[in-house]
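Narrative of activities, Objective 1.

The group set out to show that a structural description can be obtained from nothing but a protein's sequence at a throughput compatible with the screening campaign. Below is one input-output pair from the validation batch, recorded exactly as produced.
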Amino acid sequence: MSYPVLSKLTFGLLLTVPFGTSLLAQNAPKANDTTTPLHALQPDYPVPYGSPKPADVTSVLNRVYTYLDATTPAQIVNKKTNKPITDVKQLSDATVLSNAIVKPGDYRLASYEWGVTYAGMLLASEATGDPRYAKYTSERLDFLTRLSPYFAAQVKADPTANTPFRQMLAPHALDDAGAMCAAMIKATRTGIPRNADGTATNFRPQIDAYIAYIMNKEFRLADGTLARNRPLPRTLWLDDLFMGVPAIAQMGKLTGDSKYYDEAVKQVMQFSKRMFNPQLGLYMHGWVEGMNVHPEFHWARANGWAIMTKVELLDVLPENHPGRAAVLALLQAHVRGLAAHQSGSGFWHQLIDRPDSYLETSATAIYTYCLARAINRGWIDAQAYSPMTLLAWNAVSTKVTAGGQVEGTCVGTGMAFDPAFYYHRPINVYAAHSYGPVLLAGAEVLNLLKNKAFEINDSAVMMKGVK
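Output recorded for this entry:
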């Protein structure tokens, strides 16, 4: 039961009323359907409700930027003394190189999660007009690109070396190549300054090396679908749509060569043929060639990678490409499936269609970005999907701490065919998967707020000015 909050004056007056008599009861009208607009009572929402203010969205982005800029140094140090190596020419000395490492921070600078983060920083800079975000990306990509040649011999001698340069110089999986490649192409296309003198670093050799791995070295099924041989032979991971396709599509935009667009569309359609459930509008996480029965576990972040793949592809796919209509239809069907499973708190669950699984931040952030992007591009109905998008952002914003860390994120996850695996994956504030999606989501929500106006209409969030 809840009780009214009394002012000091009211409380004092109550003390003067005879025992057994309530001043409030004497003076207050009876609250019922005729005296009180019950429909206007404020609900007890678990997250903020309504259209966020652009300044509040920007504040979240700033906190994330400040934290990441401080905890992901782009610096080489001597691993024994921890002293910085500022003159890169010193790395030509084998003794210096043998003791040289990237200064440890909270996250790895060349991981796929950081490829997403670099792309998020670029979009945040575009949406806010703040050059610091783009500078974050340019400085770190420049750092990695300039120094990787010095570490080539080290990586060749030990292909398992625990260094970010191993992922760049000797990729072992799509995780090592795709997201970083896409980010480098986006950075190249923006033309942002990357050096102190304003000149641009040439990322093209590294881009070409990544693309060569994706197109020619990654394991594939007989029909050319990107696949893995773990945990079982000839396995499709839904995650690999994102780990491969956006980079391929961006290469099409960079070069104008239609073969990349054709390959990107082919991958989306062949994955979807095997893994998309059209009745639910959701993807299963794993599929194994040779299995006749596939238990469907609709893991949230993998579905996030799948919808983001379609958004990234449609962003660059020419309007007249013969595969565009099919990709757009898949996006719209996936959006309908996701919309049907958003929780009342604005988040999505770790297993999307199992509401007793926990609420997960990284997937919710990815969906927020994708929904906002699709609305802003006119691919899905703005009136229908904007309110749930704003609700999702409001939910995500509650997970960004005052210090800029993101809570509630599932750690890296393989695939499985039992529910316990997904239900009990740990969450950790250092799971890197949320940072890029939060930046992307906040930036695209800012664009949405610029493009559309919203109001509370009959207690609910609605687009403003709809006739």
